[in-house]
Sequence to fold (412 residues):
Amino acid sequence: MSVRAANTDEGTVDEAGAARFAELLANEQRVEPTDWMPEGYRKTLIRQISQHAHSEIIGMQPEGNWITRAPSLKRKAILMAKVQDEAGHGLYLYSAAQTLGIDRETMFDQLITGAAKYSSIFNYPTPTWADMGSIGWLVDGAAICNQVPLCRASYGPYGRAMVRICKEESFHQRQGFEILLHLMRGTEAQRAMAQESVNRWYAPALMMFGPPDDDSPNSRQSMAWNIKRFSNDDLRQRFVDMLVPQAEILGVTLPDPHIKWNEERGHFDFGDLDWTEFHEVLAGNGPANTIRVARRREAHEDGAWVREAARAYADARAAEAGASQKIAS
Amino acid sequence: MRSSRGLSHVHAGSLHAPDETMAVRNARDLYTRRAEGVSIWVVPASAITASDPDARGAFFESPQGKEYRHATYYTESDAVPHL
Ligand SMILES: [Fe+2]
Ligand SMILES: [Fe+2]
Fold:
C-alpha cells in the first residue's frame, strides 16, 4: 500500500526521515501519513485515535437508551441528532486511524472482544432524564475542553478529524445545559432530579482528563510529539474554571465543598478526586462495562447479514456490468 | 462535496461502502448532517493516482524562482492607479 510505502523499513533507522520528522515538529507543521514517523509515534496515535473512536461509538449507548423515553418529540429529535453525531465522530476517527496502517475490522474486533479501551465515563448508567442534561453539559463539556487542543495535534488526519468534531460538539453541550436549565426552572421534583444527576456526573467528568500529571507516564512523550498540547491537570483546571459560573447560572451545586476562588492563582481550587474508583472503572469493573461491550457486539453481529447482503448485491451488480460490457465489445 | 451552487467540490473525507450507491448515501449521512452540501462525488481510493510525496522537490521544481509569474513581482508600477 502506498500509505505504508514510506515506512516499510520498520526497525531500521531512516536518518533523513527522522531528521525531517523532527523538523516538522519543531516548525509546528503537520505529519502526514506518507511521512516517516517513529514507530512509537505511530503506535501511540493508533492507540489514542482508535480508543477515541471507540469512545464515540460506545458513547452512543448511554444516551441512545433515552431516545424512546425523551419527554417530548422535540427532545427526542434533538437526542437522535446528537447520537447520530457521535456515530459520525467515531467514523471520522476510524478513518484517521486507518491512515496509520490498522484496518477497521481489527479495530471493531478489538472493541467487541473487550480488548480495546474506551473512555470510562461511558460505563456509568443513565437512570434519569436529567442524565441527558448532565452528559451534554459535563461529559461533552469535558470532551470539548480535551478536544479543542487536539485540533492542533501534529498528525494531520487526526487534527482534521478533530476540527470537524469540535464544530459539532458545541451543540451537544448547549442542548445538555438547556435540559438542566429547564429542569431547574421546573417543579421541586425536577430540580431535585437535576441536582442528583449533577452529583453523580461531576467527578467522573473531571476524571475524563486522565490521571494527575505526576501519575501520567505517557503524557510527557505525547506532549513532545505535539499530540497532546496541555497537561491533564491544566485541562481539568480550565474545565472547573468554566463550570463554576455555569453551575451558578443553572442554580445547581457542584458536589465538592472545596471549590473556592483562589485569588493568588487566579483559578478555582477544588478537592481531590477518588482515583481508585477511576482505575476500577477503567479496569472494566464499572457499573455498565459488560453491558456496553455486549450491546456493541450484539449490534455488530446482528448487522452481519446486512453487510453480507450489501456486499452480495454489489458483487452481483459488478458481475452484471462486466457481462454486459463483454457483450457490447 | 459541493457546499453550494457556484462553488467547486472540495474533499470532505473518507468512508467505507460496498458499492457506489451506498457510498453516496453513506457520504450524505456522514458528511451532510447540517446541510453542508448540495452535491456529492465519491471515488474509490484505488482509483486515485497521486504524485509521489518523496519526489515533491523535483516534481514541483518548475515554479521555483519564477516570481515573475505573480503580479506582485512588478513593483515599478506600484504608484500607477488601476493597474
Ligand atoms: Fe463526539
Ligand atoms: Fe458529543
Q: What stands out?
A: The CA atoms of residues 46 and 97 of chain A lie 6 Å apart. The pocket of fe (ii) ion (ligand 1) is lined by residues A 56, 86, 89, 165, 169 (CB under 6 Å). The interface with chain B takes residues 2, 6, 32, 34-35, 81, 84-85, 88, 91-92, 95, 98, 104, 164, 168, 307, 310-311, 313-314, 317-318 of chain A (CB under 8 Å). Confidence is low (pLDDT under 50) at residues 1-9 of chain A.
